Amino acid sequence: MNAALRPSRTRPHSRLKRLVAPLVAPQVFDFWASRFHPTWTWERPLARIVAREPASADAVTLLLAPNRHWAGCRPGQHLMIGARIDGALVSRSYSAAQAHRADGRIAITVKAIEGGKLSRHLHEHSQVGDVLEIGAAFGEMTLPERADGAWLFLAAGSGITPLMSMVRELAAKGMPAELTLLYWARRREELCFVDELRAIAAEHPGFRVRFLLTRQEPLHADEAAGRIDEALLSELVPDLGARQVYACGPGGFVDSARALSQTQARSFAAEAFTPPPRMLDESGTVEVTLARSGRTLQLPRGQSLLTALEAEGLKLASGCRMGLCNTCSCGKSSGSTRHLHTGDVQDEPVSALRLCVNSAGSDLVLDL
């Protein structure tokens, strides 16, 4: 069993906690425990950076050692990572580029995004020894328990990270299924894991990798040029109909991958790292009542509730801002909302909703 998932790492010392709980608040315990070890806490998951190395021209890989309160993750899943920047906690979701290590550590590969507060901090300023907040793993694009048939992984940009975690997992099992990885980047220097992927391909005949460049000409036998389209897929994967497809990358790339392969492949699963536009062509405002604070606000229709509430000065917990991590979920006791990605209307009187991907369809009462 993976060290990160062993009961001894995740089961609290329940007897000691029952004895001490009435006497010490968790926040007080965390404060004093951190004086002895930076990741000792009552129950809060933390992770310490134990190594960092460049992954590409604009990305860095951080090796993290979580404390015993973190329950681990499966290859392909995401986790919330948080760091204090200028005194405020900033959290975003990252995929584990390596999830199953014998020592229980995990790796994340962070691309520096223009305007990305946390990605810039982690890429440019994080150091070995820094302690980060780490959340529970989430995400459903994971490998099945048993490999069945051939696979095709389609990755673009940062979309390589969850798929790389799966490639590593399959390689550790001897590559039990035939797998082709097509990995797009604008330029060669933006590619991550190139040497490792080539080494895996050399060791496992059932694994084939092709690097696709959109702004450079190919120089090596495993490189090609061009954006994802029907002709390129037909050339590189002539047996697409026999394969199960996983795709990950920017929203436009995933949309193209879905249109080209969903009806042909045995199965198709995808996650987009950049969401579709989050504005609906709706006018007017609605009255939103915040039940806990007693405030009443006039918010615009067609805009995500998270964005609209932040514009009113509320500081709300959020993470991926794509409807994946549930960090911004809150209760709704009345009113209807519209999902900004699908257009679906939710009018159940008492329900939970993710503020980042829902807009107000009528007057609302929210548990905020």
TrEMBL record:
Domain 2Fe-2S ferredoxin-type span(s) in chain numbering: 286-368
CDD domains assigned: fer2, FNR_iron_sulfur_binding_2
Alphabetized GO MF terms: iron-sulfur cluster binding; oxidoreductase activity
Domain of life: Bacteria
InterPro entries given in the database record: 2Fe-2S_ferredoxin-like_sf, 2Fe-2S_ferredoxin-type, Beta-grasp_dom_sf, Cbr1-like_FAD-bd_dom, FAD-bd_FR_type, FNR_nucleotide-bd, MRET, OxRdtase_FAD/NAD-bd
PROSITE patterns, A to Z: 2FE2S_FER_2, FAD_FR
UniProt xrefs under SUPFAM superfamilies: 2Fe-2S ferredoxin-like, Ferredoxin reductase-like, C-terminal NADP-linked domain, Riboflavin synthase domain-like
Domain FAD-binding FR-type: 42-144
Pfam family, any one: NAD_binding_1
Protein's name in the database: 2Fe-2S iron-sulfur cluster binding domain protein
Organism annotation: Lysobacter antibioticus
